[in-house]
Amino acid sequence: MDTLAKESGVARRTIYNQFISKEILFQAVIESIWFRLGSPDMPPEKEMTKDPAKDLYQIGLTIARHWAPPETQDFLRLIVREGDRFPHLAEDFYRMSKAPMLERMSAYFARLESEGIMAFGDKELAIRQFVGLIMEPLRWLRLIGIGEDPGDALYHKVVDEAVKTFIARYLVTGKTD
Fold first, then answer.
1. Selecting from 3.40.50.20, 3.40.50.970, 1.10.357.10, 2.60.40.420, what CATH number does the domain 39-170 have?
2. How far apart are CA 119 and CA 113, in angstroms?
3. CA nearest 54: which of 103, 15, 108?
4. What's the rounded Cα separation, in Å, for the pair 103 and 50?
5. CA–CA gap between residue 170 and residue 120 (Å, rounded)
6. Dihedrals φ, ψ of 118, to 5°?
7. Domain segments of the chain: what residues?
8. C-beta separation of 160 from 138 below 8 A
9. Predicted confidence (pLDDT) per residue in 95-140, tens digit
10. Residue 39: what pLDDT?
11. Cut 0.70: pTM above it
């Protein structure tokens, strides 16, 4: 609270007058961060093609870039660190940031499957695998505080390899160039 007051340029008492408790203040800070970060801005359905490699590449770059800023990494660490004290925090984070992205991907994957372009079996697992192929090499070490942002060149390389791996596993033979 002292740090917050100092950085805000107000007395600690002023902060307490605005927020009944530390938990309410914490929730206000979290909501402010959620508002700024939002969910990855997935390409609109109308921009999706029947070329899964092209579409997945765009989706993958969107995911990689959305989770790149240092503020996002700090926020993820906060969610993990404070989840035990504020159980709703992780649930709210998932509902407000990751779930909308996964829902959009689910609709797109369902379309690919219904058109016979890809065959997933377990679509939800496939979605998590795709996201994992991108997030693990780009975010894991940063999440635990090791390393810097790998930069756009590595984003492209990781996403390209993720798409190739994913296509090799799930593409219905003969459905793309």
1. 1.10.357.10
2. 5
3. 108
4. 19
5. 6
6. -135, 155
7. 1-37, 39-170
8. no
9. 877 888 899 899 999 999 999 999 999 999 999 999 999 999 888 8
10. 67
11. yes
- Helix H, strand E, coil C: the string for the chain is CHHHHHHHCCCHHHHHHHCCCHHHHHHHHHHHHHHHHCCCCCCCHHHCCCCHHHHHHHHHHHHHHHCCCHHHHHHHHHHHHHCCCCHHHHHHHHHHHHHHHHHHHHHHHHHHHHCCCECCCCHHHHHHHHHHHHHHHHHHHHHCCCCCCCCHHHHHHHHHHHHHHHHHHHECCCCCC
Token pair 């800023």 is at which residue? 69
- Per-residue confidence (pLDDT) for residue 28, from 0 to 100: 77
In this model, does residue 156 exceed pLDDT 70? yes
Residues in the chain: 177
pLDDT digits (tens, 9 = 90+) for 75-101: 888 888 888 887 788 888 788 778 888
Q: For the purposes of burial, counting CB atoms within 10 Å of the CB of 113, is it exposed (0-12), middle (13-18) or buried (19 or more)?
A: middle
Between 38-42, 53-57, 113-117, 122-126, the lowest mean confidence (pLDDT) is in 38-42
